[in-house]
Amino acid sequence: MTVSQIDEEVAKLLELKVQLGGDESRHQFTLKTAKGTRDYNPKQMAIREKVFNTIISCFKRHGAENIDTPVFELKETLTGKYGEDSKYDLTVSFKPTVLDPTPSQVPFARYLAMNKVTNIKRYHIAKVYRRDNPAMTRGRYREFYQCDFDIAGQYDPMIPDAECLKIVHEILSELELGDFRIKVNDRRILDGMFAVCGVPDDKFRTICSTVDKLDKMSWEDVRSEMVKEKGLSEEAADQIGQYVSLQGGMDLAERLLQDAKMSQSKQACAGLTDMKQLFSYLQLFQVTDKVVFDLSLARGLDYYTGVIYEAILTQTGPVPVAAAQNGAGEKAEEGVSVGSVAGGGRYDGLVGMFDPKGRKVPCVGVSIGIERVFSIMEQKAEASAEKVRTTETQVMVASAQKNLLEERLRLTAELWNAGIKAEVMYKKNPKLLSQLQHCEDSGIPLVAILGEQELKDGVVKLRTVHSREEIDVSRAKLVEEIKRRTLDV
């Protein structure tokens, strides 16, 4: 480019600056993330990575394979696969740059039908998007991760279902989020209950979606909605109220099998028999301390055909950091209930909806509410005095005297080539104190110190940061010694 061309381009930029209002326009612009999204600093990302590692480790421990599906689906794939009161607008849209969400079982079912897969145990973790209004204080975002585990295939009743519940129990226990409960129910039990309580067939789904609100509304409000808005008789609503207040375990399933009304429904009896079998497996898996059979659990999506479950935290905590950063204009609360952190169930008919010949592949799965888990883990980290490491560096290569940059770089390269996670300061002659302070601040456990004497003797002074103990290690044995001391890093 010639000088005259450069001058011409500069003139154009100056003219554009004047048109945009110069410096004043820049001052009027506020830098922020889009509503329902957020940035994550290194500390927050370290927490997220720990959570992902815990979850993926659990999935792999149970023999799951990993697959990936697109973040959006064709409109015709989505139409008609959800409940009447779905929270989602199911038309995939590319404006205004926000995609609508696809509940994870749908792309999985489409994947099975399209690829003629009849059995698989899979997990899938990926970012997805939703259009509805975010609730930042409850860990609900427009851009978020979905974290799913599913078992597809024809197996004996309740064995895969029990494993899904075991997985939820393991993950929530390992993450130490606090006390939790896993509610279980069965859509066949719900439908049978509605039938014996006098709910018309054409109102099953709409009444089910109202019952699903019992975790957020009082029974009085739910009853009012069923009667006044959904047109259900008061007598039927009151009978439903007697059942949805029941909670228990295998004993409740046995009692309901003897119930004068419930025993009249073959559908309910089939669900209750399976519920007894489920709890017998859960006892073997040693998770019945956290699992409760709860007749108020409904889960609104139409495609569930059998067991359904939802894990909730039974404690409250401070407002997540994200709310303070992004919730401008929202009233901050002293404590918030994070609520549901996992949910799922059996959906035996969904794959058949996509298969050209209607071939069914029974499926059961669970979704972990990963963003809500992140929010809780961030709260715990903020409340704790414990430092969160944001790197995995095992050793800092430092020097005690000047003019040793080349030696530091040479040793750093040796460590990298041996698979050691090492750092070096980007200065020719850094002060030793500055190098040691960086290790303190970053949580780096070891420092490999070079000096003129160490170079002559063929050794490296290896310093343990927290204890400040130092030993001379021969250059040939340095890698082995670092690995021995940092097995957990």
TrEMBL record:
GO BP terms: histidyl-tRNA aminoacylation; mitochondrial translation
Aminoacyl-transfer RNA synthetases class-II family profile domain sequence ranges: 7-377
Gene3D superfamilies, per database record: Anticodon-binding domain, Bira Bifunctional Protein, Domain 2
Pfam families, per database record: HGTP_anticodon, tRNA-synt_His
Keywords of this entry: Aminoacyl-tRNA synthetase, ATP-binding, Ligase, Nucleotide-binding, Protein biosynthesis
One annotated GO molecular function: identical protein binding
Uppermost EC category: ligase
InterPro entries the record matches: aa-tRNA-synth_II, aa-tRNA-synth_II/BPL/LPL, Anticodon-bd, Anticodon-bd_dom_sf, HisRS-like_core, HisRS/HisZ, HisRS_anticodon
One GO location term (cellular component): mitochondrion
Residue sites binding L-histidine per the record: R130, Q146, D150, R299, Y303, Y304
The enzyme's E.C. designation: 6.1.1.21
Catalytic reactions on record: tRNA(His) + L-histidine + ATP = L-histidyl-tRNA(His) + AMP + diphosphate + H(+)
Family (UniProt): Belongs to the class-II aminoacyl-tRNA synthetase family.
Listed name of the protein: histidine--tRNA ligase
Lineage: Eukaryota, Metazoa, Chordata, Craniata, Vertebrata
